[in-house]
Amino acid sequence: MRRSVFIDGAAGTTGLEIRERLAGRAEIELVTLPDDRRKDPAARRAALNDADFVVLCLPDDAARESVALIDNPRTRVIDASTAHRTAERWCYGFPELEPSQGALIEGAARVSNPGCYPTGFLALVRPLVRAGIVPADWALSVHAVSGYSGGGRQMIEEFEGDTVPTAWRGYALALAHKHVAEMQRHARLEHPPLFLPSVARTYRGMVVEVPLPLHALPRRPSIDTCRDALAAAYDGSEIIRVAADDRATVEVEEDAGTDRVTLRVVGNAARGHAVLIATLDNLGKGAAGAAVQNLNVMAGFATTAGLVL
Ligand SMILES: NC(=O)C1=CN([C@@H]2O[C@H](COP(=O)(O)OP(=O)(O)OC[C@H]3O[C@@H](n4cnc5c(N)ncnc54)[C@H](OP(=O)(O)O)[C@@H]3O)[C@@H](O)[C@H]2O)C=CC1
Ligand SMILES: CC(=O)N[C@@H](CCC(=O)OP(=O)(O)O)C(=O)O
Asked: Per its database record, what is this protein's job (predicted)?
């Protein structure tokens, strides 16, 4: 059956990416507002209530406003913003999180798209917590680097302006980034992870790293034990893959331009040191790719339709 999809925020970085992925799909009637009406609440209210599905690609406050404008029980929502990722009554839109998560998303009226950094972090950590390899009360830290499109239009303008600001910038040094609560909740951790993000002078791409002192973990797992647990968790997934290569290097562009996530467990067995590494595209599985995947699941389309794998 053909379904109508309204993208609210279709002129922004994430909205444009979703638009490109949905354009030309026969099963989808794509609705966007003309430029002079895209912020007009009356036009948005009408489009929001007419559509079978809406995808919100807006700042958090505007996303909350859009949800409040929906006054019918039929329209189903995918929110790409941070606004509802830890909210009650919203389904977390990460189909690979648990074997049952896809069915929950399929039946949900309100789905929150995961954040880009949490996507990498959760893909690495949730299966290890579930398997008891990482205790729920473990003190985890996570370092990450993102392409500058992660900061939306304003950061793109900053990095593409006449004066190049920097090659690499660490930020959120007060250790209170907006993604910490989302990471803690959906990894089922007792403590917030210590999270240090950074941005590099490349448009898109992401690396998320979680150091693990294997020798200090209660079960003293091996590198292979961690890798095998991840491989079992994503067995059969076309989107999340576990690499078994012995790479000595990793680059931020590894999965840029795709909707894939690649997971690695690297380390020094003699020292009992390991690092979990996820590479993805902040605009792919970190945003637009995940929104399209969630739409596919909710509408009953082929799960990976329109994705770049
Ligand atoms: N970029 C990324 O990698 C990721 C982004 N996200 C999330 O997706 C959402 C969109 O981010 P992103 O695309 O990067 O941001 P952008 O700033 O590139 O785009 C946001 C869009 O929303 C429009 N907008 C702002 N306020 C309103 C309003 N009241 N009514 C209608 N439109 C409005 C903006 O218009 P104008 O520019 O004219 O103000 C702009 O077109 C955010 O919540 C972000 O957190 C999620 C994952 C990754
Ligand atoms: C480089 C950069 O600034 N990144 C953004 C996160 C982008 C993102 O994906 O976060 P949401 O999904 O929550 O919008 C930041 O750290 O705020």
From this structure: Catalyzes the NADPH-dependent reduction of N-acetyl-5-glutamyl phosphate to yield N-acetyl-L-glutamate 5-semialdehyde.
Looking at the structure, do residues 56 and 81 belong to the same domain, yes or no? yes
The angle, 0 to 180 degrees and rounded to 10, between the axes of the packed helices 13-22 and 152-159 is 110
Q: What is the mean pLDDT of the chain?
A: 97
Query: Closest ligand 1 atom to the C-alpha of 61?
Result: 29
pLDDT of res. 1: 83
What's residue 14's pLDDT? 95
Does the Cβ of 283 fall within 6 Å of ligand 1? yes
267 and 173 assigned to the same domain: yes
Structural domain harbouring 180? 116-282
What is the total count of domains within the chain?
A: 2
Is residue 116 part of the annotated active site? The answer reads yes
Could you say which ligand is closest to the alpha carbon of residue 181? 2
Statement to judge: residues 104 and 128 lie in one domain: no
Q: Are residues 130 and 273 in the same domain?
A: yes
Is the pLDDT score of 246 beyond 90?
Answer: no
**Two tokens at 119?**
């996507």
Q: Which one, of 221, 233, 223, lies nearest residue 277 by Cα?
A: 223
Domain presence at residue 46: yes
Task: Give residue 110's pLDDT.
Answer: 98
Number of neighbouring beta carbons within 10 Å of residue 220: 10
ipTM score assigned to the predicted complex: 0.95
